[in-house]
Write a structure and sequence with these properties.
Three copies of one chain form a homotrimer. Chain A starts with a helix and ends in a 15-residue tail after the last helix. In chain A, strand 12 and strand 13 form a beta hairpin. Chain A is mainly β and 415 residues long. Chain A has six helices and 26 strands. Chain A is 13% helix and 40% strand. In chain A, the strands form five sheets. Chain A has a ten-stranded antiparallel beta sheet with strand order 2-1-12-13-14-15-26-22-21-18, covered by helices on one side. Chain A has one domain: Beta-galactosidase, Chain A, domain 5 (Distorted Sandwich), CATH 2.70.98. The radius of gyration of chain A is 22 Å and the shape is globular. At the A-B interface, helix 3 of A face strand 2 and strand 11 of B.
Amino acid sequence: MRTLPLAFALCLSSHVAFAQEPFHETLTSTAESVNDEIWSADSRQVTPNCEHDWSITKETLRGGRQEGVDIITVDNGVMQIVLCPTRGMGILKVTSGDLQLKWDSPVKEVVNPQFVNLASRGGLGWLEGFNEFLCRCGLENNGHPGTDKFINNVGDEAEMELTLHGKIANIPASKVEVVVDRKPPFALRVKGQVYESFLFGPKLQLQTELVVLPGENTFQLNDTITNKGAQEQEFQLLYHANFGSPLLAAGAEVLVPTHNVTPFNDHAAAGMKNWSKYEGPTAGFVEQVYLLKPKADHNGHTMALLVNRATAQAASIGWSIKQLPYLTVWKNTGAAADGYVTGIEPGTNYPNNRSVEREAGRVPKLAPGESREMTLTFGLHSGGNAVEAAINQITVLQMSGQGIDSPNSTTTPRQ
Amino acid sequence: MRTLPLAFALCLSSHVAFAQEPFHETLTSTAESVNDEIWSADSRQVTPNCEHDWSITKETLRGGRQEGVDIITVDNGVMQIVLCPTRGMGILKVTSGDLQLKWDSPVKEVVNPQFVNLASRGGLGWLEGFNEFLCRCGLENNGHPGTDKFINNVGDEAEMELTLHGKIANIPASKVEVVVDRKPPFALRVKGQVYESFLFGPKLQLQTELVVLPGENTFQLNDTITNKGAQEQEFQLLYHANFGSPLLAAGAEVLVPTHNVTPFNDHAAAGMKNWSKYEGPTAGFVEQVYLLKPKADHNGHTMALLVNRATAQAASIGWSIKQLPYLTVWKNTGAAADGYVTGIEPGTNYPNNRSVEREAGRVPKLAPGESREMTLTFGLHSGGNAVEAAINQITVLQMSGQGIDSPNSTTTPRQ
Amino acid sequence: MRTLPLAFALCLSSHVAFAQEPFHETLTSTAESVNDEIWSADSRQVTPNCEHDWSITKETLRGGRQEGVDIITVDNGVMQIVLCPTRGMGILKVTSGDLQLKWDSPVKEVVNPQFVNLASRGGLGWLEGFNEFLCRCGLENNGHPGTDKFINNVGDEAEMELTLHGKIANIPASKVEVVVDRKPPFALRVKGQVYESFLFGPKLQLQTELVVLPGENTFQLNDTITNKGAQEQEFQLLYHANFGSPLLAAGAEVLVPTHNVTPFNDHAAAGMKNWSKYEGPTAGFVEQVYLLKPKADHNGHTMALLVNRATAQAASIGWSIKQLPYLTVWKNTGAAADGYVTGIEPGTNYPNNRSVEREAGRVPKLAPGESREMTLTFGLHSGGNAVEAAINQITVLQMSGQGIDSPNSTTTPRQ
């Protein structure tokens, strides 16, 4: 009488083995000249045993300056994450019930980089497409525009005008893949490759992976930057995570375990006392930028938290200070119509012009073939208990955390 | 027995009420990710009672640098107007029998702004797509390229290189709608919205409406510029209306009721005596630009007229000097192959660099939320009688018209 | 009994007459708003009597920065030539068995010019799309970036920043046609038109024709540059032919019959002794550029040859020094990952900034309506005998060839 069940079990096992190969689909591949305009997959097709109804959908936007822009929406059953392969795999928006990671930029469309001239307005052209929740800044450079040196085609040191926050957010991904595990916890993955690579220039590759589990309120970015060239190469990477209404409002606060906080300029120095607290939308507010050296646990892990006034909603970013030692907090609480937003921005550097950062020892280099990994975890915390738990994590880090010394840091303790 | 007729009347009335709702179609909407490639409507479908066979057609151009460019042709039965949503809702060409509003630019394609770098050639890149009959210049700035100040992201006064005639003609419309009245006079409307709006920059919205009646030889532009931001905002707007062969030819003349005519530079001063008269195509002709302060009637209404040599064809632009106090006449009667053209250009300013115009008090500002309306009427006059009537209008304005003083005007009377 | 054959002959003749009209297809025409995404023709349809199975195929690339890029593959039965109308009719790659004309650029995609800002990185933005085997440099200018004068819209001499190698390689063709002879030798032709033409700028037209015979290992480019404007116009044209692995390898050599070889700079001077010989890929190698004045036969015909180490494979370029008097050899034998490549570049000039070339008398002018023709023949030589024959041609030219004096040449004999 055991035969039948065994046969059944074998059959099932074989089936499961097959089924356990992850689901894989290439949505974009320049090598194969593929770029589907519409595509979707969902839990019913791919993971019928998963208790959460997830879906991954690709569409191509139409009209105005968003003509031809691809977006991918990952819905894990409780949270919707909208990615934009055309804009360097940035994240446009994350929604979990009434908690949203987004801001209301004066730029309403998802702008195709075809329409962006980064050099416009004295190197500030990047702003003409800027409306993402999460926008990578780099790879060859990020930070303020202005003159910096580089090596030109004849091997001479020459000068170029850097543009604000570099190119990566305005380079379409060359390859985009969806990978879904067929076994618990049924991880959903969107992978992308973006290149800043050309003759007499950098040969940098960004491989990025968004991972989210069905039913969870967190997601992870696993990024790898690789120097595909045969010579040492500088790079810069900053994660420009932007939060606006309604999470950001008067009384909201950013919590970071930190050794010190340095105002970016005199104007920021004047607001130093309340650097971590936010006012409501204020017409004419001029940005205040603070440069932090976060503390971390013994593994190098740290976290920043944006908490709303009622301590009822919060958003967190967790990362390793071994990978991203510096944190910039950008307070830009202007009027709603002008862009009411704060940026919480872990990076390899602060957003000065690269020439300043190089001088300060904050422009890392990659040896030929060398890779650097960056892992960031984003959490959406709803309800008093969840927010308190997150605040406690910050408190523990602040009390016991350590910094990793950066010998040439120009930051000075202010608190 | 009254029941039935009443029911019928109600039914009819309800039907008529429904039918009198204007016909409405959204051709492009970035908010809804809509952009139809092909679309058309005509009198048979929409206004079967209209005596004129009108049609409105949208198509998407293909090939070279015009790949993906949308154009809309409004045919009101006697006149064809070709609009280009992709190029800021400019008007490419107007045809009424053998009278055409157009010029033969060395640019033969309708260039997608994706291929235009406005900063090219010392800020003259705008010329690489310039071939419209009517092209708006603005909104943040227009006029000559060159250095001007602006307020950058950290609130400091910084310098930027302005580019010729600003960006608006190279920004695709975010929303395009067709509205047609179902009752006489069956007005045909094409509406568009174009944005120059981004963080640390202007938040300007252009809403434009082209209105034309079936069977008429005139059309109107109703434009509204709105400062959607929360801070005071400069703007500039100039309507670059361009006329070429065959309307423009040796012996053609521009008639404007005006207080004074100021040559733009020494070269224009040398041609001052014949500023209003045109020569035939002349290889090597260097542009001559004249700055006018038009007179207007007591409502502020004025008009400019381009009359052909035989006084048999003319084109007029009517507008209010309360809205657009300045008029620029651009004579560029080079060889046909090089671009034989004249511009008649009502504006908020003259086409100097914005820094010059600001100094002269000719850069208006919009308060937060404030709008400014501009209404222009274009007339195509065919036949001696029609042309004489238009000339008479100019004569009346010249004899009795008044100017509205602009205290800081730098123009000096020359005639 | 002769009647029937006669009738048959007549019939055949009539059929042949019809059949002898060349096959013609317009793939792209901006004038007609045509741009087919997919198209193909082959010998079975068009030339059933041709012994070689040829085909011509058009496709549109997808994904990343190559979205919407058109490529045309001409397969003549023994050789595949891939053209790119979207990138100024450049040639991406030529393959004949295991002999390939191509190089491995750090740019992996075929980049749509929509994504290229030529002014980027101090005027070196051209490099961000550069990966063609054959790329035209011009038309208004080519060579190094930097300041040069030009005449602006008001007729004044002004300054502009030239960008590396000009615009032509980043301008999509406005017209693309395929023409195939229906009679032997069944010539296959792809024709393209590219314009650098706008108000207050050049009015230059490039008409290019690729001609290849079925079964042959050579192909020809017949280019005509025309000044469509009414005023004299400078132009520059350089054929940037780029060769990489495996043809280029340690021990490869470039053979050119030449009067003299001038190093471009001190760094090139240091490598002068071995200017014609190639090393293997060398990380950190800085480009060495040599300026040549080729000798030619009494018709002005000359030739350059790249021979591999084993003298078993070679590629040749033949042209007239009456059309292209100057030759630049660009040695850039860096690491494979950085771009291991040599350029053999016949031109109207050397690749200095145009201001330098003008000073040296190497910037030709076209009178209004004037055309200049350029004919280049590319040969793929496989096997010792074929290579020896090509080398012999060079030897004959070197021994007996003449130069055409260029009075203002700045080159100095070095050998």
